[in-house]
Amino acid sequence: MNQQVTGHFMKKTFSYIKVFVALLGLFFVSVFIHKTSQQKTACAVQHITRFHEKPRTTQGDSHILADGAWIVNSVGRLGNQMGEYATLYALAKLNRRPAYILPEMFNWLAPIFKIRLPQMHRSVINKIKWKYYRISDWMSEEYKHISGKFVHLTSTPCSWTFYHHIRDEILREFTFHDYITEEVNQFLEKLKGSRENVTYIGVHVRRGDYLTVMPNSWKGVVADKGYLEKAMTYFRDKYEEPVFVVTSNGMQWCKENINSSRGDVFFSGDSNESSPGNDFSLLAHCNHTIMTIGTFGYWASYLAGGEVIYLDNYTLPDSPFLKVFHYDAAFLPEWIGIPADLSPLLAKKP
Q: Which of 25, 108, 236, 262 would you label with 10, given CA atoms 20 to 30 Å apart?
């Protein structure tokens, strides 16, 4: 009897052990699957949100800002944002203060570039008593000695005089995300066709609001057909197989006024001013640049390097624009200026 009970007990115990081992195995398998799933999901999310990851952000701990903080206003579109960022970067470094950017500036620049400056959380911004410091559109000796731990730079500077001495660092900040570079290079390769010694010339034609702002507010003009012909002739004479990649916020005018009969002109880009990354990246990846006016064309030229032709002296001598803008501070000395045709303005003068 005891042997029967013992045997029955052993069988039952063995059954429990088998069930336990089976459950334990299922547990480890499920853990492995869960871990693998998490890793795959993380990789997928990283791939999908490759440029949406935010840089370091201040949260509210006062010790984070023990060394002070410098920020700059976030005003205007892409070209203005880049000018503000670069100026903040340079002046903060010059004055040995940590720099932070506003969330709005991050939203403009982070989808396109691998920027490194941390953005400051809005809750922190609102708690700080800032020293507002307005700067002009060119470097001044006084900017090397700005006092204050918490400085809020204002204005919309776009001048190489602030940061050209650290050009390599600025170019590093404005490094395109890898996938953008890959897409642009693939596009340019298609334009190459059968050419063996191709040279890409980015052409940015700014029109839009400047058609009224320049003559009515600044006593100035925008680039005309004659200017573009001179600039393109320069590159056609110098390079064996130039390819002109034209972007503009007035593409129809470009198609009507730029001679494309030679087969070396391509009207590209999407002309979307609210989302300018495509046009900008295309221009910045070219070898050389023809720009007209505006910060968008300036920064595309600065990032592309190479030779740059720009529209020079596009305002009358008595233009109020010259009170806030200096040609020699806006365009690098080695860039080539072609004077604008001011005859339309002169014809209107009494």
A: 25
Residues 6+ apart with CB under 8 A from 188: 200, 245, 282, 285, 286
Residue with more model confidence, 3 or 196? 196
CA angle 113, 119, 121 (to 5 degrees): 150
Sign (positive or negative) of CA dihedral 80, 115, 107, 285: positive
Residue 3: pLDDT over 60 = no
Q: What is the pLDDT of residue 346?
A: 87
pLDDT of residue 13: 46
CB 285 within 8 A of CB 311: no
Write the burial class of residue 8 (CB in 10 Å: 0-12 exposed, 13-18 middle, 19+ buried).
exposed
pTM: 0.82
Q: What is the pLDDT of residue 44?
A: 30
Per the listing, tokens 């059954």 go with 15
Q: Judge contact between 250 and 257, C-beta under 8 A.
A: no
